[in-house]
Structure prediction request, 336 residues.
Amino acid sequence: MISANIKRGSAELAILSVLAQRPLHGYEIARRIERETRGALRFTLASLYPLLYRMESRGWLRAAWGETPAGRERRYYRLTAAGRKKLAPLRKEWRELFRALGRLAEARHA
Amino acid sequence: MPDWNSEVSRELKNAGFSPAECAEISRELCNHLEDLYESARRDGLDDSAARARALAELHEDPRLGLHLRRARKENTMNHRTKGFWLPGLLSLVGSVVFFAIFDAAGLHPYRVGDFSSSVTHFRVNIFLPWLCVLPLLGAASAYFSRRAGSGRTLRLVAGLLPVLGFLTGFVAAIPFVFAVNGMPGINAILPAIAAGVLSLVVIPGVALLLGVLPFLRSADASRRAV
Prediction:
């Protein structure tokens, strides 16, 4: 299980990454992240929406009401151009961080 | 199906949202609770256990309403500034500056449709060098607006801000002109107003729009096109 601080820092990357695939509503975002991280990252309603609204007000996401295939109304989030622009450097930063941590762990074992 | 509204309203009660904002957030959170509840039911939980599981997520943070409000307000100003005001000012200031530069350089508007007489005054001015620059200004404005994540409407308005400014100035100047020159007959006023609107609003507006149009497509669409 990943600690809370790391989770907080990675939450934006997780949301941007799943929305880069296709627009999703809040519940789908939470489930998709949980499934794709095999439960390592889990958003509850109370942790998800403040983050989504913050990212929306920063202009990274845009939300609009739409219908699910079952005909239910949901508020769908999609990435904006600014969100896509944010995603690439975020991915790079996290890749570098994990690489650095990997090197550190290997050095410890050596 | 449980009614989630009262539970959600209690969470949002003291957060200071406008009624419209509150209604939208409430609708979204109720939908989420409904999905959580149905998922719990599919997992085999009975009604009250499924309801409790869904509500536990809602009540996990006692300051949820406050956090939602802070999140919604954060950077709203910055986003609007970057996505609309700065790109809009770029085209507005740019158009005024280029007009002044071309005018100072001795270039003058080309007059077409001059039907002026002692009674009417209809003369459309086409300032060709200036009109050539306007598509570039409109394009730059719409590009920066799109880069900041603005929607189509904001991109369009930012790009056309100069002509909206000219139109406002034009409308505001009419009573002043009447006050100074007296009230002429309708035959004299309408052609003069029409010529002014054509010269300062319609024709420059079309020039700006030419630059704005390519940037009204979403960034995704333009990326796919490449």
Confidence is low (pLDDT under 50) at residues 220-226 of chain B.
